[in-house]
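for the record, two folds in this file. i put them one after another cuz i was lazy. first one right below, seq on top, structure tokens after. the second one comes after a little note so u can tell where it starts
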Amino acid sequence: MKKSVRDADASGRRALVRADLNVPLEDGDDGSIMVGDETRIRASLPTIELLRDRGARVVLVSHLGRPEGEDPSLSMKPVAERLGELLGADVALAPAVVGPEVESMAEGLADGDVMVLENSRFEKGEAENDPDLAQALAALAEVYVNDAFGAAHRAHATTHGVAQHLPGHAGLLLERELEELTKVRDGAERPLVMVLGGSKVTDKIGVIERFLDQADEILIGGAMCFSFFKAEGRDVGNSLVDDESVEAAKQVLPKAGEAQAMLHLPEDLVLGREFAADTEIKDLNGIDVPEGWMGLDIGTNTAAKYAKRIAGGGTVFWNGPMGAFEMPPFAVGTRVVAEAVAGAEGHTVVGGGDSAAALVQFGLGDDVDWLSTGGGASLAFIEGVELPGVEALADA
């Protein structure tokens, strides 16, 4: 248990809040850059508003995208503007992440004021957890709050280093993420159904191996199923497969035969000639993919069987789409699974990333018990990996 922002002595003090404001951007009608999806900004509001209500002076820091050095197209300016609109308050944007001018702005904040630092990844030392950058960030505030669960699995200056210099607290979002994911990892209602998709077995092998003896059902979809098929000696045609994932699948398959959980692979597929929405399409009643074709979705029989198992789950965890859902011809499997998760009577938790995007795309984002803001972080946590951004916070 970590100290909570609820218990932070923040009144009249500057609070450095590591938020996850890494939102997609889009071009506005007037040529400006705008926030394309404000979900993560809204998820940060409860912690920001709690601090403001208690008279804190809030300094927000976040990364945005993957800039290489300073990149004006990835400035925090549109994020600060939208945050100000949602708060109904002026939100100042600092010209940099650290430095004398930033320090002066922070010192000039009044109780309840909010400012946003420039993109933390404009600083090379962010990803390197540079101690000098961490110390410079700590100089901006007297209290540190980490509310960026989506970045908590990374030991960066803003998620880990700065907590070595300031009393660290968990934000409201981070607290809820840990609570919900702990239910899956340590206290799941049975049966526990794990739904895992995406492209690489290597990204999820730790989760699969942990839950082979902890879950009741593990349902595999997405391109990662082809690594399992190739490991079994099946034909995969031009389907997406990488050698590392095949080796990982070869490790899992023998264990699955002796495990508590039933590991399910697709039994039918939807194929395409190319990775394109307008490609030639064919349904395959089987799993051996002919040459010249690639698997781009699970088939209707598989989707129906997965949906039935999800419906019977006491706890359901889903991370990773069942196919190339961004293209309508190959979205059916992911939609069926998404609808099953949304309609399940058990406790439902969806890992971030593409799974969250799919739920939102299908209008089901509000129909699950918890929609995590962190894809990689959620997988790491339920696997049992220590998250540097969490471990750096003070114990309660």
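(here's the note) second protein begins now
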Amino acid sequence: MADPAYGRLGGPRLLVYHQIDAGLGREMEVPLATFERQLEWLQQHTQVVSLDTAVARRGEPDSHKLTVLTFDDGYDDMYQLAYPLLKDANVPFTLYLTTHPTESGEPLFPGGKANPVTWAQVEDMASSGLMTLGAHTHRHPDLTQTDAGTIGRDLEESHRLIEERMGVRPVHFCYPYGWWSKVAHDHVEQLYETATLGSGSSFDADTDLLKINRVPVQLADGMIFFKRKVRMGLHLEDRLRRRFKGYHGP
């Protein structure tokens, strides 16, 4: 109820998804049936575009009608459940891949039901022409708590693996946990053209392309709060989350 008082976020809306129908009860996952409804609603009420299209059109008067679907980390359930729906609907999307789990086969998080995509699955999605592949570090460290040397090695390893395994140089990056790091910024600037964070300010013509905010889609959103987030942004919740986490970045 407080969000309308803050006004609508301007520019394209970049939505963040993680797991689909994992059954773990974590806020970072969305049930498959809910994702299907959300995808259908987005197609009816917005124009779902690629990340590159959103970047190019972010200064247009009607850019608030544009939506970008982004998926973080690279979970097997994203490939098994979300990708077939996206492919059938011919909807573009961005995958920000954490490379160590994909390279090693180890779960992204302990406890099961968090298996990573394989390189073959990433290649399959890339072959559709719908996927934009971005980097999300090698081991998913908190870059606000990591020294410059470790950050440099991690980012370079992630960059190298994507280029070697997929034959493309990634130009898009996503900060782990959505937290910007001043120490990491110099490394990111050398490797990438864009970088995305967690929720925050509008994405418009004045936005620093290395500090693009996104809106997370969560388990508790359902459809009511999902529609509100797409239309208005994430003002009060974002402010409360930042205060709770002690995060003071962009």
